[in-house]
Amino acid sequence: MADECIFCKIASGKSPANIEYQDKDMVAFWDVNPKAKIHILIVPKKHISSVVTLERTDEKLVGEMVLAARQLARDKGLEDDGYRLVINAGKHAGQVVEHLHLHLMGGGPLGSMG
Ligand code: DGP
């Protein structure tokens, strides 16, 4: 846990969030500043600052985060029309919280990224 990290605080229950799912490795909660009708963040409980600092030993954790996102998408009824999973890494991507997180967005057209 990083002392000043807001996502560590949410993951440990020290700060509030609208939590959708959690298990021993991760927590998923609604984004406070949603960019889509459904916008949920999937966050590892372990403090990892970014994809940039991921280690080979985090491989299973990241896979589990993607599978948890898929399950949430399923539960929210997003599978038929689709959804987007995004991980921002660093300044040019606009990463503002330096704790790895996977965005799940859907519930309406998201626009093209290309
Ligand atoms: P990124 O740009 O990938 O670092 O996105 C960070 C997202 O985290 C952004 O969409 C807003 C959200 N966020 C930041 N602080 C909080 C918080 O304290 N609570 C919740 N629920 N979301 C937060």
Write structural notes for this entry.
The longest helix has 17 residues, at 59-75. This protein has a five-stranded antiparallel sheet with strand order 1-2-3-5-4. The chain is an alpha+beta fold and 114 residues long. It is globular. It is built from two helices and five strands.
What's a quick, concise take on this entry?
This protein is α+β, with helices and mostly antiparallel strands and 114 residues long. The protein has helices spanning 6-11, 59-75, and strands spanning 19-22, 26-30, 38-44, 83-86, 102-106. Strand 2 and strand 3 form a beta hairpin.
Quickly list its features.
114 residues; alpha+beta; five-stranded antiparallel beta sheet; 2 helices; binds 2'-deoxyguanosine-5'-monophosphate
What's the arrangement of secondary structure elements?
Elements lengths: L5 H6 L7 E4 L3 E5 L7 E7 L14 H17 L7 E4 L15 E5 L8
Antiparallel strand pairs: 1-2, 2-3, 3-5, 4-5
The structure holds 2'-deoxyguanosine-5'-monophosphate.
2'-deoxyguanosine-5'-monophosphate (DGP) binds next to β2.
Structural class: alpha+beta
- State the low-pLDDT regions, or none: none
> Outline, from the CA principal axes?
globular
CA-based gyration radius:
14 Å
Mean pLDDT: 97
- List the ions, cofactors and other small molecules found in this model: 2'-deoxyguanosine-5'-monophosphate
Distance between the termini: 36 Å
Q: Strand-and-helix sequence, N→C? A: HEEEHEE
Biggest sheet record: 5 strands, antiparallel
Strand order of the largest sheet: 1-2-3-5-4
Helix content class: 10-25%
How many helices in DSSP terms? 2
Share in β-strands: 15-25%
Total beta strands: 5
